[in-house]
Amino acid sequence: MKKRLLPVIVVFAMFFSLSTAFAGEEGQAQAGGRPFSGQTSVSAVPWTGRYTIVKGDTLWDISKARLSDPFAWPRIWKKNPFIHNPNLIYPGQVIKLPPGVTIAPPKAAKEVPPPIEKRVRGPFVSKGTTLMSRPPVSESKIITIPPPPTRHPVAGEEAILEAGFVDEGGIKPRSIKGSPIPQALYGLFDKLYVNTDGIKAGDRFIIGRYEGKVEDPGTGDTLGRLVKVSGVLEIEGPRDGFMVGKITKAFTDIKISDRLFLYQEPVIVYEPVPPNPKAYGVSGYIAALSGDRHDVTQADILYIDRGAKDGVLPGDTFVVKRPGGYARKDTLLERSIPLPGVKTGLIRVVSVREHTAAAKVVTSDGPLKAGYSIYYSRPK
What region does 241 belong to: left with phi over 0, alpha with psi -120 to 50, or beta? Predict the structure, then answer.
């Protein structure tokens, strides 16, 4: 009996020792060779809000890359008082970036499709082999479909808003009451307080400031006051007895003294712009120039004394003529005879109000000034 049990006992002992060894190796691999399921990856580490300057950096570039808005660089300067001159920053300096910035998560690795053998098989596919073949097509039956044409806007949404406008009166602009975080200047994503009367969540306002009166060169009448747009405010909801709004667009520094104007949705017009029969024969003058300048050239913004009531639409192109001067007199008794105006450029309307419009200079053979005449040319 003992002779029969001895081989069985030996085999059982060998099997027990091997299984114990394998179990030890598996536990060791899980603890050291493989990461635990709770281990944190580098991409999940919270962003610190600091940045180390390298050679070639400017606050403009850092603001564009980190805040998605190059015009927000004063916020970075204000956050780092040790920078005395914003034009002088040095490699190795560590600066703080303003709060409220959303950093996009790293892009996920491209998903690799499973092997063909593991894919769900359909009625026509088996291990990647197509069971139904397409009949051959002759070259004469091949139809080439051209790609859709690219549409180019006359002006984008931000360009239209940033162009500004002439406030013709009617509705008094609102004032900004303050901010949850008092500071000298405000920028993208900052919060502002507004009175609650007649405002609801989701309302938008244009943030701007007055730059002076605009007069009609033809009649001398006051058309309104020129508004320089600095940003857009979107109301989020009530807070501390006020309505609080977030700055969703910032074109320049925003101040508490800025005003809030009713938001007018930009009208996007695409090339080619069709003729506007309602504007045939419309003529007027350049009433004002952007930035309180004495003259403007190509790509600059100006304002004309014609608007929606005259049939003007966004995208309309006007010819600009400068005065021709006067004929030379041979004697003092001769009457001065004005010379005809000279065509000097083209402007294109980007936004329209009731009696005025903002336009961009398309071409010019010299500086354009307030008082130059304009007219809509009928297509030939």
Answer: left
Distance CA 217, CA 223 (A): 10
- Residue 76 · residue 187 · CB < 8 Å: no
Tell the residue number behind the tokens 């952007």, with chain if given: 290
Q: What is the reported pTM? A: 0.61
Backbone angle region of 134, left / alpha / beta, with phi > 0 → left and psi within -120 to 50 → alpha: beta
Cα–Cα distance list, 3 to 11, 12, 16, 67 (Å):
14, 15, 21, 85
State the burial class of residue 253 (Cβ atoms within 10 Å of its Cβ: 0-12, 13-18, 19+).
middle
Bridge partners, residue 250, by sequence: 231
Q: Residue 359: which of 293, 273, 298 has the closest Cα? A: 298
Rounded CA separation 246/187 (Å): 10
Class of domain 277-376: mainly beta
CA distance 129 to 126: 5
pLDDT digits (tens, 9 = 90+) for 335-359: 778 788 899 999 999 999 999 999 9
| Superfamily for the 49-96 domain | LysM domain (3.10.350.10)
How many other CB atoms are there within 10 angstroms of residue 348's CB atom? 18
Percent of the chain surpassing pLDDT 90: 52
- Enter the tokens of residue 187: 């920028």
User: Count of CB atoms within 10 A of residue 21's CB?
Assistant: 10
- The answer on pLDDT for 118 being more than 70 is no
Q: Distance (Å, rounded) from C-alpha 121 to C-alpha 178?
A: 64
Fold for domain 157-262?
A: Thrombin, subunit H (2.40.10)
Q: What is the 8-class DSSP label of residue 296?
A: B
> Residue type at 222?
T
Kindly list the domain boundaries of the chain, sorted by start residue: 49-96, 157-262, 277-376
Q: Which of 256, 233, 101 is nearest to 186 (CA)?
A: 256
- In degrees rounded to 5, what are phi and psi of residue 331? -135, 160
